[in-house]
Amino acid sequence: MSRPGPSAARVTLPAVLVRDFEHGTDVDQVLLVREASRRARRDGAEFLKLSLGDRTGGIAAMVFDDVAQAEELCRAGSPVHVIGRYEVHQRWGAQILIRGLRAPLDGTFDPAQLADGPPRAVDQMEADLRELVSTVRHPHLRRLLDVFFGERSETWALYRIAPAAKHYHQAYLHGLLEHSLTVAQAVSAISATFPGIDRDIAVTGALLHDIGKLEAYTCDAPIDMTDAGRLQGEIPLGYYRVRRVIEDLAGFPEAAAESVLHIILSHHGALAHGSPVVPCTREATLVHMIDNLGGRLGSFDRLEKGLAPGEAWSSFDRALGSGAYFGSATITAEDRRPASGAAEPEAEAA
Hints:
about 35% helix
């Protein structure tokens, strides 16, 4: 395999987003190594299987020559300058045929274009979370939330950067904060619509429902499940983490504890989906429904990033059970004009 050295010329072709790759595209740019693993062929020879990408998607690549050197260069989570050709094989699918790899030169790539991440600034999400927590009036629930989300809390330091998943939605750093905040904000907004819902319980449960992911997933690239996540699951990990804290809070009401812990245990909604119990309260039902909605809409966000300009349909997605459609018409200023002969709406009096 040809391996241009560090003195090689800087980028010779403009960087192309992964979602814009077409069969036959020449690749000469920096990409992010998402995953790298050494594999063995049937004849015993080794090769390096790579997943390369940018903020718009990922693509497979194989390295068959100088495997040890390539493995040292292609560390998961690091950028690498790739020279090759993008092809869509009838049997093997889309992949980059590698001709050369080298360490990227400073100034030849924008790190922000490589790593996926939330659409909102992390500082803004943190401010929104603290504003939401401040609206919880139940004193014991506020104490519980302060343990987890206080600015000096070790849990908060982890919660702030943790991913929400390995693949399907918010599978990037700060994804847990984005997902849980979105779910909690929606729960807060809708809780007054239906009678009988205890808003403080529902919001607290929404903020804590995925807390087990702090132990279930790694924050290092590539995002993967930990041993604890595989052996115990994120729901039991979250349940016991919150229960331990509650037991250390003197005078915490038993009914409030049961309500919050039930939300954590039941938020997947069904035994077949990993919940040891199904939602049996209004608050748990609401959190489950909004959590499911947030996850599914998060999949739309993930798929849309990978679409080429003008493309309306994604490929089949396991999380949705279908392809996603993005060709719906938007309402333009022209659409908002009244039909011919219709009266203009009267201006509101000052």
